[in-house]
């Protein structure tokens, strides 16, 4: 829904209609278009993200002289959460760049247009590795890391909310698997409303041909002109549906892994 062009979105009836359209035109495989990128990157992304939060926690405790075991204040939690986005971007940016390009390509080409939602006509990527290889051959690391600033503009505030909500909820609920699940679910549903507008802008920018946009202001202006303010929230329904179980399980897995590794340290 985020990568569809304004023309493609006309007449759209929402998440369910979009799902049926994908299955009708591309089969069940269309629902998994671009899945190779997150599959390859999901483990390092989550690992670096949680490591970044722990590192940010240690940094702010050292700077503010907060003893271990004492809860951080809200501003301190925001610092630790925002800090986690910095190292995570090293993995996140190329993974999402590749994912977005794989998602917008069509087997028989697509329509024109200036925006980043233009379907790929001449270039077809066979998968994650082929897409990464072609981007690198054409633009080097700069091409793979296109959209880094927008990713940080999305993830720094997003991770402030994400880890902040999780930590506050978990402190209130106590140490238990159920507390981790509930706190993770709350973190997930709090995260998406904060990041989605910037996520839509980032996806549009990352899939646009080089030189299409000079800055985020141009991306915003064109998107709003074509789709209205609602275009900034494209995909909210699917994101919210996925966020509760996905983040609940992610935080539970992180807590269980930390407990397991603690026995060896």
Characterization of the model:
Residues 107-114 have low confidence and may be disordered. The chain has a single domain (14-262), classed as Mitochondrial carrier domain (Mitochondrial carrier fold). 71% of the residues lie in helices and 0% in strands. The protein has helices at residues 6-9, 15-26, 36-64, 74-104, 128-144, 148-173, 177-206, 216-227, 236-262. It contains 9 helices and no strands. It is mainly alpha-helical.
Structural descriptors:
globular, transmembrane helix, transmembrane, mainly alpha, Mitochondrial carrier fold, mitochondrion, membrane, single chain, MCP_transmembrane, 9 helices, 265 residues
Q: Report the mean per-residue pLDDT as an integer.
A: 85
CATH architecture: Alpha/alpha barrel
Strand fraction: under 5%
Q: How much helix, percentage-wise, in residues? A: over 70%
Radius of gyration, Cα only, in angstroms? 20 Å
Q: Please outline the major beta sheet.
A: none
Count of separate structural domains: 1
In the CATH scheme, the class would be Mainly Alpha
**What is the H/E order?**
HHHHHHHHH
> What is the overall silhouette?
globular
- How many strand units? 0
Family: Belongs to the mitochondrial carrier (TC 2.A.29) family.
GO molecular function, one term: O-acyl-L-carnitine transmembrane transporter activity
Membrane topology: Multi-pass membrane protein
Solcar repeats: 1-59, 72-172, 175-260
